Amino acid sequence: MLRSKWLIWLPALAAAWLFDFLFWKTQGGINYPIWITILTALALGLAHYQGRRPARPSYLLAALAVIFSIFTSLRSEGLTVFLNGAAALACLALMCATLTTGNWPFYRIVDYLLAGVKLAAAAFSRALTYRWPARPEGESAGWKKRTAGWAAVLRGMLIALPILAVLAALLASADLVFASRLGDLLELFNLERVPEYIFRLFYILVLSYLFSGVLLHALYPEKEEARPDPQKAWVNPFLGLTETVIVLGAVDLLLTFFVTLQFQYLFGGQSNIKETGFTYSEYAVRGFTELVLVAVLSIGLYLVLNTITRRKNGGQALAFNSLAIALMLLVLVILASSFQRLLLYENAYGFSQLRLYTHIFIIWLALLLAASAALTAAGKPGRFGLALFCTLVGFTLTLALVNVDAFITRQNVNRALQGKPLDDTYLGSLSSDAVPALFELYDDARLPQQLRNQIGAELSCRVYLAQQESAPPDWRAYHFSRQRAAALLTARGAEISAAYPVIESGEYRLPGVMVNGAERPCTGNFFGD
């Protein structure tokens, strides 16, 4: 049992106040990893102090939460930042939900969802329903003494305030610097900011209440959770094997027909496709999104049927597993077809953020399918939840490690070296992650002058826009990617601007720059970070 309410309320209040301090009126940067790291340390430290030693898997979640949060300050690309930020919170929440048990590696998908629901319910209710320990009679006298001490402190502050006011007014009249600093301090108590202070105090108290519920649930759950059996169905199966065989068999036949066509046409080369009246590009560079969706729906179909199908003996289980494995193998071939179509599309039109997301997603989806087939063959389909968790972690980390915008920049420029057109306007829409890659390519001696001009003009637009940002950034919003880009643009800004001067009011009534004899507006850069 907790020895004092303050052991929960003080850490919860500290976490809520820290949120306000780090995020009020500032953009995301180093503040997010600082906040996540301190929250993680608070939860683990409080658990150790209370003798509720965290389970080993909880430390893995803590490490993942910190790593994901750090990537939000290392990358500027939108989806990468969002997924890593969400993953950090999700890992922290899962750690709190299973802090002392470490049961999450044994969860089924429904268990992950239930853990989230229980944690959310605890955040709203545990601080009200928790039975706080009664104060022993022997401590009542000590409590009264401490109360009297605080009352004396309050009286002393009330006496000191008017004395300080008089002395401060005299000192302010005697020294202008002191008067200026005193004015800055008194600005904090500006009556015009009272509504702001009330609002901030309100949400700090609300967050404190929610965090206290989460901490109570983490340290002292209402019911100690037993380790779940991944192989146990969470609903009673009600669908007969005959119906399932018909459904899976029909889907397998449909996918077999489709896969046969893929081997005959897409995998067979251009000559076979021409016989159908389509060009190779017409056949190949379409439909990869639909094929990925087919793969996702097929996994969903397998999960549903695996949950609701009755299997009374080993023979029925073998029949189901055979059809399910065949489904996954066929879907793997479909993913290979989708991947090849995507490669052809990228070769024809270049890389974009959406295409690269899909590119990476297909690879991880294929790994998930392969793992699912292996688990089904081993008779352990209940571990799919852990496989899905690893897939989501892998996909999110891959986006961060690849550095999406820098990768797109290099690939599209390398593609231009092979004679393909370069969409320099699209490069302008990329985040600050692309700036180091742009400078690296600009300095590449292999680049033809025409291509170098396109990259130089893009850098000149970014230099111009960086010069318009006069206000120094708040330290809380310090961001490694944005800072590195700003340093490069500042260091080489004069060189780039002299070579590619920006026209402040060009043909398009926007800042523009001349590229190979034509004006190119700096429009894309307004949608970067």
Description:
There is one protein chain. The protein has three domains: 1-150 and 194-230, no CATH class; 241-379; 405-527, no CATH class. With 529 residues, the chain is mostly helical. The protein contains 21 helices and three strands. A three-stranded antiparallel sheet has the order 1-2-3, covered by helices on one side. The chain is flat and about 95 Å long. Helix content is 71%, strand content 2%. Mean pLDDT is 85; it is low at 270-285.
Q: Could you name the key traits of this structure?
A:
flat; 21 helices; 3 strands; three-stranded antiparallel beta sheet
Low-pLDDT parts are: 270-285
Strand order of the largest sheet: 1-2-3
Beta content = under 5%
Order of helices and strands: HHHHHHHHHHHHHHHHHHHHHEEE
User: What oligomerization state is this entry in?
Assistant: single chain
- Enumerate how many helices there are, as a single number: 21
Rg computed from alpha carbons, rounded to a whole number of angstroms:
31 Å
Which structural class best describes the helix and strand composition? mainly alpha
Number of strands: 3
